[in-house]
Each structure stands twice: as C-alpha cells, then as structure tokens.
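SEQUENCE-TO-STRUCTURE ENTRY
===========================
What this section holds: a protein sequence and its matching fold, both as plain text.
Tokens: labelled as protein backbone structure tokens, with as many entries as the chain has residues.
Question of interest: how does this chain fold, as expressed in backbone structure tokens?
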Amino acid sequence: MGRKPTLQIGGVLILLFWTITAFVNHVGLLCFAAVLGGYGVGATFVVLPLYLSEVSDSRVRGSNCSLFFLMFSAGILYGSFMHQYFKKTAACLLSLPIPIAFLFIINCSWTPESPYFLVAKEKFAEARRVLLDLGMKEEGKYVATDDLIEFDNVTVHFHRGHDPCRHMFRIKENRNALFTQAIIFMVQVSSSYVPILFTSMNIFIRVTGDMRPAPAENLYSAIQLFGSIFCFLVIDSYDRKPLLLTSCFIVIAGQICLGLCYYFDSEGIHHVHSWVFVFVTSFFIMGYSIGLGPIPWILMAETFGPHIRSLAASGLVLMVSIFLLSIPRVFLQIAKHLGVYMACWIFSAVVSLGASCIFFLFVETRHKTIHSMANDMEEEMLYCGEDPRRSQLRLIES
C-alpha cells in the first residue's frame, strides 16, 4: 500500500476512536472504539518512525524521528491535565484529538510518499523526484541530500522475486540486526516503566496525604517530556550507542535504588521518607526518556535495509505489544509474592544483561545514509552471490 495510505488509514481509525469515545456512553460501542483505536495506534507506531526516517536527511534523521516520542510525551502530559479537570466529553474535545487526527489525515494527502518505498516498488524516477523535492534549497537551487547523492547505488539493493521474509531470516546480517533490535526493545520494556509508575502512585498518596495521585501523574509526565526534549536536542550531536547505554545505566541505578527504598521501608530496617521515592522515581523516568524511550523507535527505522524494513518493523511492534501485555503482569506478580524490591532488582538484572548485549552487538547508525547502512551489511551481495555492478546493469536493462 505504501507509507502514506497506511498512515491515513491509521488516522481515520484514531479519529473514529476519539469521536465515539467523546460522544458515546454505551459499553459495547466503547469497546468497539477501543479496537479501532488499537488498530490505528498500532499502524501509526509501525509506519510513522519508518516514514520520518526515510524522508529525513541523515544529518537530522535522529531529531526528526525523536519528534515521534517527544509529541507522544507531550500528548500524555496535556491529556492528563484535561482528564483531571473535565468530564469525558469535554476532556476529549479540549484535548484536541479529533481536530488533530483530522489534520493528520489531511496532511498525509499532500506529503510525498517515502522514496525508499518507491525504490522497493522499482519506481526509480518517481523516487528520485521525491528526493529532489525533499532537498534543501540554496539561492533558488536544490541541494542534494546525502541520500540523493548515493541514490544510483541504492538500486543495487533491490531485486525482483525476493521474498522479504525469507530474505530477513536467510541473511546473517539481517538476523543479527533483528536479534539486536529485539534485545533493545526487550530492555525498553524490561525497564518496567509502567508497573514502577503504578507502584509509585501509592507512594505519592503517602506524600500528599488525602490527595489523588493526579499530581504524580502530572509530575512524571512533565519529567518524561523534559527528557524527550533533551533527547531531541542531542540525538544528532552524539552517537546513539552512548546515549542508549547511559539511559540503561540510569534506569538500572534507578531500579536498584527503588528496590533498596522499598526493602528498607517494607522490612522495617529504616524508614525511608516518601519524597525519596518520588525523587528516585523521577530520576528513573528521566533516564528512561533520554534514551530507552525514543531511541529504539529511531533504530527500528535505521537498522534494516529498505527491502525488509516494513516487515521487520511490524514484527518488532508485535513483539513489543506482547511484552507490554506480559512483563508488567510478571512484575506485579513478583511484587505481590516476593515484594516490590525483589521485582525491581530482578528486572534491573534483566536490563543489565540486555545492556551488555547492546554494548557488544550494537552497530552505530548516526549520520549514515540508508544506502551506506545497507552496504555495510552487504545484504544483497551475500544473497545474490554476484557482482553488484552486474545486478545494477541487469536492473537498468530490465
């Protein structure tokens, strides 16, 4: 179908979800709306990072893709404020999801299709025209982007008759990329961001007395937004690997410290002031939002060659969805039977193991063009067993 039609369909589903949610109170229709919203958000989480990566110059690709997580964090903060002070219909209208979804659909109608999707469909002339349109202008003339400079070489990596699924698992480099990206997403979910926030809400009630946990939600959402802004500002100035490992280190330290706080408090060894829990949780959220939150979505669009990127992204988002359903439940079960501190320590060990794998397996992608990353993997040369110049000649002749 292409990136544009998929994004438009996702926008329509999200628009239907918010429209039904705002004006309908029937349980069956609300469940139906939730299904539509799930499909819409799922499609958007797969396609939008890919599209942002494929239409961005390599020098600003990281910041453009990190906007995805930044705006997601901003939406959480704004939506939490609206739903605390207004009823359902008013909150849905004032938080502006309906007009934003409508504008998203309209915007997708005039934005260009991804040039790399066009190349995958062997529409080379149209792809080159899109790359020219995306180029920067200086003194009225187009200046070619890095990807356009290497455009003629990109066609080497696309061939008729190759099954993307078979291609993804047959080539060693593709398998390694899929394994590394799966580990990164596993570390992201194993940080236990969601269940730690759930348990921290109870701590915030102790801090604020009889107040609802709404102030905690606002505080933590604001910290996540601040961390997302920091990532947006530095992601193209520093390599992905140091930022990701720094984020992992802060998350591990936060989990260990939270575990110690819960251990001392629950075992009666030493009373831990409730504001210490709030501070450590805030430290944990900051560490998560500067790396483990946004960077896996950026890497999902950068790691794979254009020929298999859509399939790999779909599989990874499905895997993340399964992790998000299972890992928080495992965390809460461990917390119930062994204590919250033991759950924090167990998952800190999991994140530590994942961070070690990232240290040894991760291949840097910053400022590399999509072609150069595919060339590093040599995916088509290994697959075809032929001189790439002969492959290119065969494509031109056909």
